[in-house]
Amino acid sequence: MTATLTSGNTYFEDFAAGQKMQHARGTTIEEVESQLLTKLVMNTADGHFNEDRMQKSPFGQRLVFGLVTGSTVIGLATQDTAENALAELGLDKLRFRAPVFLGDSLTAYTEVLDTRDADRDDAGVVRFKHWGTKQDGTIVFEGEREVLIKRRSHWGS
Amino acid sequence: MPDPDFSTFPLKKKGNRYQDFEEGRTFQHHWGRTLTESDNALFATATMRFTPLYFNAEYARAHGHDSVVIDPLLVLCTVVGMSVEDLSEGGGPFLGVNDVKFHRPVYPGDTITAQSRVVGRRESGSRPHFGIVTWETEAFNQHGEKVVSYQRTNLVAKRREASP
Questions:
Q1: Which residue of B has its CA nearest to A45?
Q2: CATH number, domain at A80?
Q3: Containing H/E element for A90?
Q4: Burial of B95 (0-12, 13-18, 19+ CB in 10 A)
Q5: Considering its fold, how many domains does chain B have in total?
Q6: How far apart are the first and last CA of chain A?
């Protein structure tokens, strides 16, 4: 019944080590993504939301919170990597390689590092590596992620 | 009555510095947070987290949950957020996060609290006014069950004035 709500090509069986993806949609980071999400999660560092103070800093402007960048990059990759997920298992080696500023536009890239059986037979585990770049091609974020994904053999229509 | 001279108002300083992070020191982070369905919808929408478990309650129920699931990335961001004043508001960028584990699902109405322990620190070779500190952070729901844990490393500014 739920199989009609998600696409048929994002089940565990559809992933193989070495597979690469450029995700179709990018997004510009504006106030909603930066200031609203930073305050929503109670990050109190005003370098993310005090423009006057940051204009007087070496950065010259507000910085986007690294985990807003990371969540946005993983978000851009989510339809292709976790539409049929049962759970996010973990993240590792998250690196914030260059500053992101308001107005920057992010694009996401993914490589499948590994696939393996899970401890339940209706799903498997996929390990991804994600990268996020901004408009000039600079890598701003990278990280690894493990997701528990449904098997088509059990959940497909 | 004349306006006051604001330069005489003492600053309510926030945040800690490198010298405050003795190895093994533990911080119980402030506030706690009840994560609501609206928090979740806002976060998952703004980040385009198109996993139906996070925003389709019928789909979530068909997968063994009583309601939508809170996006684990929102849980992680909130835990980091609650730790910022203790750990990183004193200045210095994020260097990395390792070994994030999501131990169990979080549901709307669950209340998350967090604590961190200093697990390592060293001077920065290239930046004499900074050090590098690593913390192990754990967060729990209202039943005391662990929901997320991770290690985070930041460049941390040193306190420049003489210690009191």
A1: B89
A2: 3.10.129.10
A3: strand A85-96
A4: middle
A5: 1
A6: 8
Are the C-beta atoms of A88 and A145 separated by less than 8 Å? yes
Residue B114 lies in a domain: yes
Q: Which residue of A has its CA nearest to B151?
A: A92
pLDDT tens for each residue of B69-111: 999 999 999 999 999 999 999 877 889 999 999 999 999 999 9
Supply the pTM of this predicted model.
Answer: 0.96
Q: Is residue B141 part of a domain?
A: yes
Query: B99-155 pLDDT, tens per residue?
Result: 999 999 999 999 999 999 999 999 999 999 999 999 999 999 999 999 999 999 999
B108 in a domain, yes or no? Answer: yes
Task: Kindly list the distances between the CA atom of residue B113 and the CA atoms of A67, A149, B85, B93, B98, in Å, as whole numbers in the listed order.
Answer: 19, 28, 14, 23, 20
Query: How many domains does one find in chain A?
Result: 1
Contacts of A85 in chain B (CB under 8 A): 51, 53
- What is the domain-level CATH number for residue B26? 3.10.129.10
Report the residue count for chain B. 164
- What's phi and psi for B153, nearest 5 deg? -125, 135
In a domain, B115, yes or no: yes
The domain in which residue A119 lies consists of 9-27+65-155
Set of chain B residues whose Cβ sits within 8 Å of the Cβ of A67:
73, 76-77, 80, 97
Per CB-CB distance under 8 Å, the chain A contacts of B85 are 44
